[in-house]
Amino acid sequence: MILTAETVDAVKSIVNDKLISENVQTVLVIDGAGNILAHCGQDTDGLDAISLAALTAANFGATSQIAKLIGENDFSLLYHKGEKANIHFARLGGEMILVSIFGDDVSLGLVRVRVDEIAEDINKIFEQ
Amino acid sequence: MALIDLGKKEVHCKIVYYGAGRCGKTTNLLYIYNAMSDNDRGKMLTIDTKGDRTLFFDLLPLNLGKISGFDIRIQLYTVPGQVMYEATRKLVLKGVDGLVFVADPLKVRQERNIESLDDLRRNVADHGLDLKEMPLVLQYNKRDLCDTPVPTLTVAELEHDLNQEYKVPGFEAIATKGPGVFETLKEISKRTVNYVANKHLFSK
Ligand SMILES: Nc1nc2c(ncn2[C@@H]2O[C@H](COP(=O)(O)OP(=O)(O)OP(=O)(O)O)[C@@H](O)[C@H]2O)c(=O)[nH]1
Ligand SMILES: [Mg+2]
Predict the structure, then answer these.
(1) Which end of chain B is more exposed for a tag (fewer CB within 10 A), N or C?
(2) Which CATH number is A42's domain given?
């Protein structure tokens, strides 16, 4: 896949506008192989984005196998709640995954709605 | 699938170390990790390891310097070699750009090497790739065992079993001590970067 600066900037501007502005700490857009396509928001101290991306891609792969075992085509989103940090994963079109990390000051509902809103726009940008 | 970031001028490639259980894949990554400076290596990720057996995968990100103005970033992965982890191996191969097949010289593992290479060919085919067209090198690991009384295979026997079809470079190695480890890495990196550049940058 070839990424241009324009593509990355366009994606970042959507993410900043819809998620980072609402206090979501960090957003990563990654592909199915575990590459980071865009990294937005805080460079959270000590966040090992490369490992996070590799594990997310593998985890999504594993989860879609689980989905098939119970007769689902795929699970399009995953969410983990921690004590201070929460993480939300959503499949964009194709192989891409949007990862949002946020604290308790942000509601899950808002993240879901916003991710839904921007998923298609981000897809379109990458398709160009 | 490699990622070429024209904005940051970076090329990211994924290289997977494949091979039967206990052939020395994780040991290769550990040796590379310990031998490289902090500037050139990222964190090594080893997940779900039970004893020293890989259950999911290992990951080691490396910076290999610049080629034609692009920073070359390589991610080395290992798969779990044990037969039962078939599904996991397939997951790790997603988006692979280059492969190292590590062979075990123990005579008792002769069939396992052949089966594992077959399994690799099938799994890349399931991702729509042809192993014959891909960057691939072989590593004949654990050569130190050949000086011991344990029955081992000669390089000629391993070549005959594994490399008749592919005819790719094979490197003798002792992953625990280092010989052959960087020779293998250099050759596969070179082949992978060339392959990715030809496929994505110069094809239009
Ligand atoms: N003598 C000798 N032992 C080696 C060599 N390379 C690896 N080993 C040993 O072989 C054993 C298995 O090595 P690993 O690197 O864990 O094997 P692996 O291929 O990652 O195995 P799985 O994760 O189960 O697929 C370890 O005890 C290593 O120390 C070598 O060159 N010589
Ligand atoms: Mg291992």
Answers:
(1) C
(2) 3.30.450.30
